[in-house]
From TrEMBL:
GO terms for biological process: proteolysis. Residues 14-146 form the Peptidase S9 prolyl oligopeptidase catalytic domain. The lineage of its organism: Eukaryota, Viridiplantae, Streptophyta, Embryophyta, Tracheophyta. GO terms for molecular function: palmitoyl-(protein) hydrolase activity; serine-type peptidase activity. InterPro entries: AB_hydrolase_fold (IPR029058), Peptidase_S9_cat (IPR001375). Signal peptide: none annotated. GO terms for cellular component: membrane. This is Peptidase S9 prolyl oligopeptidase catalytic domain-containing protein. Pfam families: Peptidase_S9. SUPFAM superfamilies: alpha/beta-Hydrolases.
């Protein structure tokens, strides 16, 4: 952003995160068996993809107040659009799919993460509803027994 070349995109952000992980995993002063990825909100979506794609480099994942998908968040932030996009976790119409350049569907990725996952859900988060974290946990825990869910005020 700022004075950078190009445009921000889901693909570009994932590539940047991968480059950072690759650099970190090559450092000799880092115990590469203990790399843990932490992500909050959009960072949780990035962290989920990074962790899924790097089972040999990432030991665990920590998610804090991460959304299920951008489309679900659109329904939260712009409630009048809910009838167009469906609510979180529903099979409602996804008419806006073609409008969203970066879908960031964490709910579609989280079940593929094999490493341990710690879910931190702030009940007073003003952006991401706790229900998003509950849905992510349920999806992950159905396939990965190494999941822990913690709610805090």
């Amino acid at each position: 952003y700022g004075a950078s070349d190009g445009y921000p995109s889901q693909h570009g952000i994932i590539n940047d995160a991968q480059a950072a992980l690759d650099h970190l995993s090559q450092r000799t002063d880092i115990d590469t068996d203990r790399i843990v990825v932490f992500g909050r909100s959009l960072g949780g979506a990035v962290g989920s993809v990074l962790t899924k794609n790097n089972p040999d480099k990432v030991a665990a994942l920590i998610l804090e107040n991460t959304f299920t998908s951008i489309l679900d968040m659109a329904g939260v932030l712009l409630p009048f659009l809910k009838w167009v996009i469906g609510g979180p976790g529903t099979k409602g119409p996804k008419i806006l799919n073609f409008l969203v350049r970066s879908p960031w569907s964490t709910i579609d990725i989280i079940g593929q993460v094999k490493q341990p996952i710690l879910f931190l859900s702030g009940l007073q988060d003003e952006m991401v509803p706790p229900s998003h974290m509950q849905m992510l946990y349920a999806k992950a825990a159905a396939r990965n027994r190494q999941c822990v869910f913690v709610e805090f005020p």
